[in-house]
Amino acid sequence: MFARSALSSAKVAVLGAAGGIGQPLSLLCKLSPYIDTLSCYDVVGTPGVAADLSHCPTKSHTTGSLPDAGAGSWPEGSEGGLKAALEGADVVVIPAGVPRKPGMTRDDLFNTNASIVKTLVEGCAEHCPDAVLAIISNPVNSTVPIAAEVLKAKGVYNPKKVCGVTTLDVCRANTFLAAHMGKDPSDVDVTVIGGHAGITILPLLSQTGATMTDEEREALTVRIQFGGDEVVQAKAGAGSATLSMAYAGYLFTENVLKAKAGEKDIVMPAYVESGITEAEFFASPCRFGPDGVEEVLGYGELSDYEQGWFDKMLPDLKAQIQKGKDFAAN
Length: 330
Hints:
Elements (H helix, E strand, L loop, with lengths): L10 E5 L6 H9 L6 E5 L4 H8 L7 E6 L11 E3 H6 L4 E4 L15 H18 L4 E4 L4 H14 L8 E3 L2 H15 L10 E3 L6 E3 L10 H12 L1 H9 L7 H18 L5 E8 L7 E9 L2 E5 L7 H26 L1
Helix pairs in contact: 1-9, 4-5, 5-10, 6-7
């Protein structure tokens, strides 16, 4: 058990804190014993979000920041600008952006969300260059390379500290496989590799020991890859996965903070700069430590079925990475 002092110094900034993911994510972070300061930032609404969260009886102090609008213009209880939100942050979680609607792919969000991520990461480069960035804004396959290029241009890029959050893919894989096996999802642990969109998501079901027919394996794989579409369609134009993504983002953030506090053997998937495939960025299990990603781990042996998906996925993933890099360059 850690002494309280080991858990009391972390600041987490949530950029996009008033949105569909940002609000439940901020609530979950408010409950974390690892967070001393919870900094909420968005273009609207954050003073209210922060005030609401501040009534939860947990130890973290909560602030709400809005974009700079000149001295003296801040609503009571808020702070000024992105600088105030980011200074001193240990982890910056970025769910900011527009959600998917029916018929849209994550890639359809590219132009709007790419610009948002670029602007926010420029702020991170200036105000908290040593923070771990946990990027949720879709399309993650492209926004993470954008973040990396922005940080390189500013001279502060550290590949250990730029992560795409793919935890939701693992949550879905564990949930769906557990239902198939009649187990508690906490007793299931599926390795999911690749990226965070459609066929670039590859669950390694062969490594779980689960018994299934070829048809069941295909159905589970495709459901995990396109699980987000279920939510988009069920919400019928009202948004995409927000609650489950907030939960996944919280799990990721909590584990980063546990590793920062000195807890050992923190291993979780992340979409990071990687040399284990031809793709410059790739999601696989990573070991985290006090400074972020300590080691990018391998993913073991693939079945023939999974190798087929892998070969199909890699060109798409590489193209999406290049799209992000080109956007950042231009």
